[in-house]
Structure formats: structure tokens, C-alpha cells
Amino acid sequence: MNPFTLFIVLYVGSALIGTLVLWLWHDRQDRLSFEIHRRRKAFHCVRCGFLYSLRKHDVSKGEPCPECGYKNYELSF
Ligand SMILES: [Zn+2]
């Protein structure tokens, strides 16, 4: 194989591998940032009307409203 051809193959191959690694890393970071927002639930306080959000594992405890302290629970249908 011509040394110039080998150089071109290695040059293009390393660029493709670098692009693939960067693409996979960015996809993973994007998925992690989406999961943080997806795991929150929005609440509307029935006493004062304040809107706030909680992480999913705090929902069953009935976290108090930051404005008036009234405990709002998740609605089940
Ligand atoms: Zn409230």
C-alpha cells in the first residue's frame, strides 16, 4: 500500500472515530439533562394558587407549598 494512501486512511479514520465519540458523548449528556427535567412534577396549590415543581420521589410525602405551607398531594385518576 502506498504510504500516502495509508496516511489518508488513518487521517480520515481517526476523524470519523473522533466524530463518533463526540456524537455519543453529546447524546449521553443531552439524555441526562432531559431526565433531570422529566423527573419533576408540577403542582398547583389549592389554597394560594402558587405553581411549583418537585422531584418525583418527593411527591408521595406531600411536600408543602413554598408560599403558604399547605401540603399538596399528587392527584390520581
Ligand atoms: Zn400555597
Keywords:
2 domains, alpha+beta, binds zinc ion, two-stranded antiparallel sheet, SH3 type barrels, 2 strands, rod-shaped
Count every helix, treating DSSP H or I runs of 4 or more residues as helices: 1
Structural class of the helices, strands and pairings? alpha+beta
Q: What proportion of the residues form beta strands (DSSP E)?
A: 5-15%
Secondary-structure element order, as H and E?
HEE
* Bound molecule types: zinc ion
Q: What is the residue-averaged pLDDT? A: 87
The outline comes out as rod-shaped
| Low-confidence blocks of residues | none
Distance between the amino and carboxyl termini: 69 Å
User: In total, how many domains does the architecture comprise?
Assistant: 2
Radius of gyration: 25 Å
In percent, how helical is the residue content?
Answer: 40-55%
Largest sheet features? 2 strands, antiparallel
Number of strands: 2
How would you classify the quaternary structure?
single chain
Report on the structure:
The termini are far apart. The protein has a two-stranded antiparallel sheet with strand order 1-2. It is built from one helix and two strands, in the order αββ. The protein has 77 residues and is α+β, with helices and mostly antiparallel strands. It folds into two domains: 1-38; 40-77, Roll (SH3 type barrels). Zinc ion (ZN) binds at residues 45, 47-48, 50, 65, 67-68, 70.
